[in-house]
Amino acid sequence: MTVLASPEQPTTVARPRGARHLLAPIAIALLAAVAAGALYQVFVRTTLGQRVDTTAMRGGDVSHPRVVEVLDRTLNGTSLASLVLVCLFAAVVGVLRKRIDLALGAAMLVIGANVTTQLMKTHLTRPDLDGFSMPNSFPSGHTTAAASVAFAVILVLPQALRGMVALVGFAYVTVIAVATVWAEWHRPSDTVAALAVTTAWASVAVFLIRVRRWNAPGGTQPPSRLVTVPLLAIGAVAGAAGAVGLAAVSMSERSMPDLVSGRFAFLTGSAAIAAAAAAVFLVWVRFAAGDRLVPPVAPAAPARPKKSGATARRVKGGTKK
Fold it and tell me: Could you confirm whether the keyword RNA-binding appears in this record (predicted)?
């Protein structure tokens, strides 16, 4: 699967970049930061938010041995060593492609996102409003690590590989995020906030890359529909399911605690996580693909005029004596 421009949008002609190309990453970074703050205020600082979030976390009682094994392996594979390896991988690929700016951007988003997550988790307070004593876990470190790893790899790879890697990365990050909720390490809001933090840092990295390449010749192209359509479909379906489920769980926690089961609340949280992951990967594949530079192609030589049949026969056979 490749990330190619559509036939209606040729990329062989250099086009000047407008202000939107440069300012879009900053706008997304600000929106992501606001989203993280709103999640903290709603799901950590309010009683109803804490109760809904905790109910979703405690409802993930998975008893299937194979599912448990997969989730355990996935969580254990996300560690500090994986972050270091990805930074080294980004450096090597950047050097080989002669794009040190991409390697530095990838390293910045990995380090910045993970350091920010750890600082937030350490310094933010969590009042005990739901009667479930637990230290602050907002945002999720595992989800931040997984998302930053996926974003970094997508950024440094060649254009033809980004689409396939984006879909694989989306699935990987979603499994990691859901697994942390199932293991009762994190609540759904922790994982969604981690996606927001990673997106903010990734957007800043893209902004700096675009500033550096502002005057470089070439054009840009959007990601393929083979990438965006699946993410749009998953995001729409999961988002609708998550919104309806969140309304039901909130109503249950507010007035009728036994209205919905814990399993339903867990599935609601999982749907919300999948929708958020699809949204941030849609943004990221567009940002990563948008930085591709395509050198202009030399104009083709004008076609020669077509000779008439008699002239062609004379040239071919010569004049008869």
Answer: no
Overall pTM surpassing 0.90 (yes/no): no
Nearest Cα to Cα of residue 181 among 218, 239, 231, 142: 142
Rounded Cα–Cα distance for residues 82 and 211 (Å): 29
Q: Is residue 59 part of a domain?
A: yes
315 is a domain residue? no
What confidence tier does 11 reach under pLDDT thresholds 50, 70, 90? very low
Cβ neighbours of residue 33 closer than 8 Å, sequence gap 6 or more: 196, 200
Instruction: Count up the domains in the chain and report the number.
Output: 1
Pseudo-torsion of CA 262, 263, 269, 273, nearest 10°? 160
- Domain assignment present for 10: no
C-alpha to C-alpha distances, 264 to 54, 115, 193, 241, nearest whole angstrom: 13, 34, 22, 11
pLDDT the model gives residue 15: 46
Give the range of the structural domain holding residue 36, as residue numbers without chain letter. 19-215+223-292
Q: Tens digits of per-residue pLDDT, 174-212?
A: 999 998 898 888 999 999 999 999 999 999 999 998 888
The answer to whether 66 and 132 are in contact (CB under 8 A) is no
Taking only Cα atoms into account, the Rg of the chain, rounded to an integer number of angstroms, comes to 25
Compute how many other C-beta atoms are within 10 angstroms of the C-beta atom of residue 213: 17
pLDDT value for 91: 80
